[in-house]
Amino acid sequence: MRIETVDAQHVRDEVVRDRVAVQRAAFPNSTFTVKRWHALAASPAYRSGRCPVAYDTDDQAVAATTVWSAGSGRPGLIEPLGTHRAFRGRGYGCAIAVAAAAELQKMGASSVVVCTPTSNVGGIAAYLSAGFTKLADVTDFRRPD
Q1: What is the 3-state secondary structure (H, E, C) of 61-115?
Q2: If DSSP codes are grouped into helix, strand and coil, which group holds residue 141?
Q3: Average pLDDT of the chain?
Q4: Is the overall model pTM greater than 0.90, yes or no?
Q5: What pLDDT digit, counting tens, does each position of 41-70 carry?
Q6: Is the separation of the CB atoms in 20 and 62 below 8 Å?
Q7: In a domain? residue 73
Q8: CA torsion sign, 89 to 103 to 10 to 70?
Q9: 120 within some domain
Q10: How many structural domains compose the chain?
Q11: Upstream peptide bond of 80 is cis (omega within 30 degrees of 0)
Q12: pLDDT above 90: residue 139
């Protein structure tokens, strides 16, 4: 497996298209587009963000994520992380989680945080298989629309 990483300074159009395609295939209700990726990459919040994309041995984009650094010595965030639905169950979720943590380590992160809903059984399994530790569940509250 190979990992390609794009960020605001290192934009490769084919990798950005793959990043978007994986997210749309991983999350059924995703409305992410290449245009939205570019808007994200141009935002101040993305100054320390990067998007690793995993490719299998046939050069198919199989998993992708975005990592967010809060600066050297501070925790980094992985959000979102997804495996293309056609490639699930092959260890790619674990592999991209490990690659994301390594990317944050290169950026100086002291640790890695993820915020995955408890209903996302596959996502939790990917993080656990990558060596992450599950902490106590936290209830999210939301006001009705």
Answers
A1: EEEEEEEEECCCCCEEEEEEEEECHHHCCCCHHHHHHHHHHHHHHHCCCCEEEEC
A2: coil
A3: 95
A4: yes
A5: 999 989 999 999 999 999 999 999 999 999
A6: no
A7: yes
A8: positive
A9: yes
A10: 1
A11: yes
A12: no
pLDDT at 145 over 90: no
Domain that holds residue 85: 2-129
Q: Read off the CATH number of the domain in which 38 is found.
A: 3.40.630.30
Continuous segment of H or E residues that includes residue 26: helix 13-26
DSSP for residue 9: S
Residue with tokens 């509250």: 141
Strand locations in 25-71, DSSP E? 49-55, 61-69
Does residue 117 lie in a domain region?
A: yes
For residue 134, being part of any structural domain is answered with no
The span from the CA of 8 to the CA of 25, in Å, is 23
Q: Which two tokens stand for residue 99?
A: 């690659």
